[in-house]
Write a structure and sequence with these properties.
It is built from 8 helices and 11 strands. The strands form 4 sheets. It has a 5-stranded mixed sheet, with helices on both faces. The chain has helices at about 15-20, 20-40, 45, 75-90, 105-120, 150-165, 185-200, 250-255, and strands at about 50-55, 65-70, 125-135, 170-175, 175-180, 210-215, 225, 230, 230-235, 235-240, 240-245. A hairpin with a 2-residue loop joins strand 10 and strand 11 (about 240-245). By secondary structure, the chain is α+β, with helices and mostly antiparallel strands. It folds into 2 domains: about 15-90, no CATH class; about 105-255, Reverse transcriptase/Diguanylate cyclase domain (Alpha-Beta Plaits), CATH 3.30.70.270. This is ribonuclease H. One of its GO terms (molecular function) is RNA-DNA hybrid ribonuclease activity. Pfam families: RVT_1 (PF00078). Its EC number is 3.1.26.4. Belongs to the beta type-B retroviral polymerase family. HERV class-II K(HML-2) pol subfamily.
């Protein structure tokens, strides 16, 4: 954990544990073991200090122009990191998940998508891509918890295992999902399965932000529909900050 962070309700900065060295390790080990054995967390860990931060736009007197930051106990965050480290040893996340995973980044996800597009372009084959946007899915995850990102990745991984056929290429970065196939019908069918499974878990596909792009498109390739509603078809899409184009080129990205 980084030093110099604002403290939570217990007023114990992370620097205390860093400075105490081995003594801190022994104390925290004993504390964490007691938490595990009793299955109860200290009350201070359940509290937080809510600090409003102005978004630097709009009326300063409007509450909607502020976002809340919760200051939590640093000791609890150390505890969560320990739990996460143990979970990662026993929980396997599929290779298609690039978000919140060690040694994976947005660059890797963008590169993987571009390689797939390039192969289809070189082979003069169509590639149908649907960029699925979830409606405020990750916004519902408590950001103040160090465990939240990994737990969210576990949920998305389990969901993807249920809806992803082996013949379909799917990639995720947290809640950003890309479904790709040389078959438009297969992409459309899988998109519907994603919608169904997401709604079972009280999540929704954002109809206005989900978009369809066809690489190396032939005449009369058609469109993709979700529950009878046509998904917006585009010639380019900004994926994780990088513009991918239906012609397979990188012109707009190079000009940045």
């Amino acid at each position: 954990m980084k030093s110099g962070k604002a403290v939570g309700p217990d007023n114990i900065p992370v620097e205390v544990w860093k400075c105490l060295g081995e003594a801190a390790v022994e104390f925290l080990t004993s504390l964490f073991n007691r938490v595990l054995e009793s299955e109860r967390m200290p009350e201070e860990w359940r509290r937080s200090v809510l600090v409003p931060i102005f978004k630097n736009k709009g009326d300063v007197q409007s509450c909607s122009n502020y976002r809340g930051i919760k200051l939590m106990s640093h000791t609890m965050k150390v505890w969560e990191r320990v739990v996460e480290a143990r979970l990662r040893k026993v929980v396997e996340i599929c290779e298609q998940q690039y978000g919140f995973m060690p040694r994976k980044s947005t660059t890797d996800a963008i590169f993987a998508l571009r390689i797939l597009m390039e192969k289809c372009t070189d082979g003069q084959r169509e590639l149908h891509c649907v960029f699925v946007d979830l409606e405020k899915a990750y916004d519902r995850v408590p950001r103040e918890s160090a465990l939240s990102p990994f737990l969210f990745a576990i949920v998305m991984d389990q969901l993807s295992e249920e809806v992803r056929p082996e013949s379909l290429w799917t990639m995720m970065f947290a809640d950003d999902i890309v479904i790709c196939s040389e078959s438009r019908e297969q992409v459309e069918e899988n998109l519907e399965r994603w919608r169904f499974e997401l709604e079972r878990r009280r999540m929704k596909v954002s109809r206005s932000k989900t978009e369809y792009m066809c690489v190396n498109e032939r005449e009369g390739s058609g469109t993709v529909r979700l529950q009878g509603e046509e998904v917006k078809k585009v010639q380019e899409f900004k994926y994780l900050g990088s513009t991918v184009q239906s012609n397979g080129e990188c012109g707009k990205e190079v000009k940045k």
